Fold:
Amino acid sequence: MIQDTPESWEVVETRKRFEGYVIDVVTDTVRMPRDETADRDYVRHPGSVGVLALDDDGRVLLIRQYRHPARRLLWELPAGIRDVEGEPLVEGAARELAEEAGYRAATWHTLVDILTSPGCSDERIRVFLARGLEKIPDEENHFEHRHEEIGMPVEWVPLDDAVRRVLAGMIHNSAAVAGILAAYAAAADGFAGLRPADAPEA
Structure:
């Protein structure tokens, strides 16, 4: 069966190289086949959630945000780190949709789970499909944007146009690429094949 499965090889030693506000960088000495060991550097990350918000006209909500490591303004899905301990992932996603885009949704499904760069980071992103969207009235939305989120535009893009932009190399953010292509594929059966919003992570 073609399916990713959990596996953990013996870690002989772990050395922390950097401790940051969100991420740590560590070196694990890992026991390999034939009883060899090798060092593997990677980023420890708390994980993220993202939201592919799709309106009744088949349009995807995209936001544009400056990403300093990439030195680019990227078109992305509303997303954020898993920074509230014990919070169900779908609730974190709903919070990000409200804070970053000013919308709430009536219907939620798990769209796709991705490991952003498994050769150098343990970050996991769960992308949800949100439908039945409603704009949150200004008087109810008290979130204050700071830093890169100030002046962040919100655009609605037809799903098939978003797919074309991904394939043309115009959209690069990993969660956006995966979410857009997954939503396009899932639309073939009217999203009937999607997992529930509270589906466990494998």
